Amino acid sequence: MPTLSQLLACHGIAPSLTTNIEPHRDHQGVWGIKFSAPGKPAGVLMDLANATTLAGELRTISAHAIAERIDTAASKAKRFMKSPSPR
């Protein structure tokens, strides 16, 4: 079974970038999930499908807290996509 660090690395995310997990719209207007940390504002942007997959994989290794934060951000991003004036 992979460790948390190994699983995040498979998805291109450094463990330090799990401080901030939030919905984010890219320059093309596509919503995704942004993983970032203080001092590293660029972070990593992941599309919603991959973020949802990652959350499921995190649950298999009992990383429920991070999985829940990803799911919450994904729910917000989906809600923003439906909004007439996205944030």
Rg over CA atoms, rounded to whole Å, is: 13 Å
Number of domains: 1
Strand order, largest beta sheet:
1-2-3
Largest sheet: 3 strands, antiparallel
Task: Give the end-to-end Cα distance, rounded to a whole number of Å.
Answer: 39 Å
- Low-confidence spans: pLDDT under 50, at least 5 residues? none
Structural class: alpha+beta
Task: Give the total of beta strands.
Answer: 3
Summarize the structure.
This protein is an alpha+beta fold and 87 residues long.
Task: Report what the structure shows.
This protein is of the alpha+beta class and 87 residues long. It has one domain (4-77). It is built from three helices and three strands. Strands 1-2-3 form a three-stranded antiparallel sheet. A hairpin with a 5-residue loop joins strand 1 (20-25) and strand 2. Helix 2 runs antiparallel to helix 3. The longest helix is centred in the last third of the chain and has 19 residues, at 64-82. It is globular, with a radius of gyration of 13 Å. It starts with a helix and ends in a 5-residue tail after the last helix. 21% of the residues are buried. The model has no long low-confidence stretch (mean pLDDT 92).
Write the layout of secondary structure elements.
Elements: H1 4-10, E1 20-25, E2 31-37, E3 40-47, H2 48-60, H3 64-82
Antiparallel strand pairs: 1-2, 2-3
